[in-house]
Amino acid sequence: MRLIRRHFLGAAVLALAPTALLPLPAAAQNWPGKAITIVVAYPAGGDTDLIARVIAEKLSPRLKVPVVVDNKPGAAGTIGNSFVSKAAPDGHTLLLTPKTFTTAQQVLKVAPSSAYDVINGFEPIVLTTYQPLILVAHPGKGYKSVPEMIQAAKSGKGVTYASPGSGSPMHIIGEWLNREAGVKLTHVPYKGIAPSVTDVVAGHVDTAWLTPGVVSQYMNEGKLVPLAVADPKRSPLVPQVPTLVEAGYKDIVNPSWMGLYAPKGTPAPVVAALNQHVNEILKMPEVVAKITAVGSTPGGGTPEVLAKATAEDFHKMGKIIKELGITAD
Q: In DSSP terms, which residues pair with 163 in a beta bridge?
């Protein structure tokens, strides 16, 4: 089993072949006037940080100014998100964030000084990448599918699932599956992805909701068994892994993504210019290769695509969070 398949990478490169550079909007031609900062609200070294740095590296020569990544971690991303929401709307401070941006304030108690408006407080620029959530199991547990895992839980066997933390998308989907399946898999929250991976590989927890990039090595070596993805259809990254929909849970769809935003009020021509540049960057073969290597696929499209994803997740996942009573530590 190989997570990143050669045929997918080749197809992605062909499908995303570069297009001709279009003239930038006239009002954006005097921008940028100084270095641009892409804020990442998580520590250096993670998937969000890596993708931000890939984009920054390619964006800098196009704009002829330095483009730097500034990590502002803490409070499930709300510190960095809030910082960008209050930055000058001049196109020089941006935010690259995973979809937890839409739910963090719904599971955390955020001080008014750190609060931000998910729907109206930012200018969406472009949806940069998609990244499926994947359920994996330790092979010693004997589960080869979601139905087998659910049957074990219904028969009285205690089944545990790890997540990178309470209130995370992985926690949300784990409890969502509990409700829909009528079982109670026990949630074991960790302080981040790394320790949850370590413990499911060691067999200290039975299963875990994670992302493909951090478990591909263990799946390839047979140390973890993939059970399902939470996307609406099978991911090209792991086409052999069925969806929860295929397992009989038609309503459990929770695709993960990352997006690039600017503070509210950033001039439309600047947003348009950034959207054009990043769309073209996401089509570069070397960028496609780096993105797929960490278990993601390139996104793209208009700012409206990101705006729609933001609003849909804010409302849909907010409803699930409230119904299930999910909170973060």
A: 189
Instruction: Give the pairing of strands 207-210 and 67-71.
Output: unpaired
Q: What is the pTM of this model?
A: 0.87
Contact between residue 235 and residue 60 where contact means Cβ atoms under 8 Å apart = no
Band the pLDDT of 45: cuts 50, 70, 90: confident
Locate the domains of the chain by residue range. Answer: 6-131+255-324, 134-229
What is the pLDDT of the chain when averaged over all its residues?
Answer: 91
Closest CA to 94 of 40, 28, 140: 40
Distance (Å, whole) CA 50 – CA 251: 32
Distance from the first to the final alpha carbon of the chain: 36
Axis crossing angle, helix 303-324 with helix 169-181, rounded to the nearest 10: 60
Task: State the Cα–Cα distance between residues 20 and 91, nearest whole angstrom.
Answer: 24
Average pLDDT over residues 230-250: 95
Closest residue by Cα to residue 91 from 38, 144, 52, 134? 38
The confidence score (pLDDT) of residue 16 equals: 42
69 phi and psi angles, rounded to 5 deg: -105, 130
Q: What are the pLDDT digits (tens) for 102-131? A: 999 999 988 888 899 999 999 999 999 999
* 212-239 mean pLDDT: 95
Write phi, then psi, for 327 (nearest 5 degrees): -135, 160
Q: Which CATH class is domain 6-131+255-324?
A: alpha beta
Architecture of domain 134-229: 3-Layer(aba) Sandwich (3.40)
